Amino acid sequence: MKQLIKLRVNGEDYEAYVPVHKTLLEVLREDLNLTGTKHGCELGECGACTVLVDGEPTLSCLTLPIEIQGREILTVEGLAHNGTPHPLQTAFAELSAAQCGYCTPGMLISAKALLDHDPHPARDDIRQALSGNLCRCTGYSKIIEAVELAAERR
Amino acid sequence: MTDELTLIGKPLPKVDALGKVTGETKYADDLAMPRMLHAKILGCHYPHARIKHIGTARAQALPGVVAIITGADLPVK
Prior knowledge:
- The structure holds two protein chains of two kinds.
- Chain A is an alpha+beta fold.
- Chain A has two domains: 2-78, Beta-grasp domain (Ubiquitin-like (UB roll)); 87-153, DNA polymerase, domain 1, CATH 1.10.150.
- Chain A is 32% helix and 18% strand.
- Chain A has a five-stranded mixed β-sheet with strand order 2-1-5-3-4, with helices on both faces.
- Chain A is globular and about 45 Å long.
- Chain A starts with a strand and ends with a helix.
- By secondary structure, chain B is largely without helices or strands.
- Chain B has a domain at 34-77.
- Chain B contains two helices and no strands.
- Chain B has helices spanning 17-22, 57-60.
- Chain A binds chain B through residues 29, 33-39, 75-77, 79-80, 85, 88-90, 92-94, 96, 98, 101-102, 104-105, 108, and chain B through 13-14, 16-27, 29-30, 32.
């Protein structure tokens, strides 16, 4: 059964006519062509698909779009402001916190939610906030340092 | 000496770093091409089993299935 779904993503309104069981991750990637949000485990374990829904980190692979119509969804494509990268994006790039880069969009989104709640988090708070995002390249140190650098600059 | 070098000793941004933090970098799963098809591999459920028959009729009958390829389709055994 298909249904017309209205979503607000990165400040823009979208409509998609999709099967009701299609996940938010699939609709973002396949119907809205926003492929920055990554398809990882599809089980809610890896965090690669993390997006913000009304500011809260949400696993888009476990979310049905029909549940969140009208709410503000933010993906990695919406992090930059008027063409200027978010301080987290700049810090991740500078410190090589993105290695293969596949986990990076989810990491950035989780880190943004943290900094929005707590502009100067302790290292343990950063670890806790990113504990749902798996990275298989960096060993996490550079990622945590990048979040600290972004927090210092904000 | 250092003044003559343009790269060594200087912090330089990685050439692909910006794309990775903006979501613009394309991975295999992000590509959409004209006439692109999706493939699925089905492995045998039984190790060291002797293949007597692979029944593909029901899969072939599913809507949207373009081709099913098995060992019988390969020229070299």
